[in-house]
Write a structure and sequence with these properties.
Order of helices and strands: EHEHEHEHEHHEHHHE
Distance between the termini: 28 Å
Number of strands: 7
Bound molecules: hexanoyl-coenzyme A
Number of helices: 9
Strand content: 15-25%
Helix content: 40-55%
Length: about 250
């Protein structure tokens, strides 16, 4: 959709960039000209993404829950590519569990990956963008149960709602620096991670697809193109907003 070269000279960080939607977003930004650092806990998938980024990728194994590791991620990106223009908070964890059966540690695991990780990465990248003095874009990946509630995923729903509030807050607080903060809200997207966590069998998958008015799961690429658009100059007057890309799922 966007012209090749849209991100020429720009540098992006994508968390959870080793797989699924994060990889698709990293590759789309790369296709459009960005240099891209991908972060995630396991090095092998990151290396695979970097191999697809045609020489403009950097793998930085990172646990986004660890403030020092997140600071090191931004430092490594700046060392390699000189700056940071775009941050995509995509890393997530999720599993289906009844709220009454969710252990305190299970709650903490998901909330800290999604919400602590989103904040720590925004803070570290935002400080770099503020120091650079010429703006930037932060995009966080949420889910519509941030506002509808999500029975069976109370940890993720609460954390994603937190990301929306964080995004709106940063949109205003960092507007004077020219930094925009937005969210995308994908519906069920055909990735291995989401499938394993949320629709492990073919039957589950068909049931989920049937809940989408458009009758199918999203491909990662059709979400990634809008992620890139929101991080581009074409969205220069959009901030604090959430773009839902879900085939009408949340309206059903
Ligand atoms: C119940 C579980 C569990 C499960 C883990 N726990 N999996 N409880 N059911 N299926 C509990 C553990 O028992 C433990 O608590 C605590 O959670 C931490 O588990 P660990 O495995 O030690 O933690 P960690 O290695 O940090 O793993 C984090 C994780 C993991 C969230 C649990 O699943 C993960 O990292 N997943 C990343 C990939 C992922 O899930 N992607 C899907 C995102 S898709 P105790 O009390 O036993 O110590 C998505 C899309 C939503 O979010 C879109 C909707 C439309």
């Amino acid at each position: 959709m966007l012209a090749e070269g849209t991100f020429d000279g720009k540098v992006a960080i994508v968390t959870g960039g080793g797989s699924g939607l994060g990889r698709a977003i990293a590759l789309e930004l790369g296709r459009l000209g960005a240099s891209v650092a991908v972060a995630g806990r396991r090095p092998e998938p990151l290396d695979e993404t970097v191999a697809l980024l045609a020489g403009r990728g950097l793998a930085v194994p990172t646990d986004v829950r660890d403030p020092e590791a997140v600071d090191a991620l931004v430092a490594a990106t700046v060392e390699e590519f000189g700056r940071v223009d775009v941050l995509v908070n995509n890393a997530a964890g999720n599993f289906v569990v009844k709220a009454e059966d969710l252990s305190p540690n299970g709650w903490r695991a998901v909330v800290s990956i999604v919400l602590d990780g989103g904040f720590l990465c925004s803070r570290a990248a935002g400080k770099q963008m503020i120091a650079q003095g010429d703006g930037g874009a932060i995009l966080s990946v949420i889910a519509s149960y941030a506002w509808t509630g999500g029975p069976g995923t109370v940890h993720s729903a609460a954390a994603k709602a937190g990301l929306v509030a964080m995004t709106r807050t940063l949109a205003v607080e960092w507007a004077p620096h020219g930094i925009r903060a937005n969210c995308i809200c994908p519906g069920p997207t055909d990735t291995e991670g989401a499938g394993a966590a949320l629709w492990p069998t073919e039957e589950d998958r068909a049931r989920v697809a049937a809940t989408v008015p458009l009758g199918r799961l999203a491909t990662p690429h059709e979400v990634a193109v809008w992620a890139a658009a929101l991080c581009s100059q074409y969205a220069g007057y959009i901030t604090g907003e959430t773009l839902t890309i879900d085939g009408g799922h949340w309206l059903e």
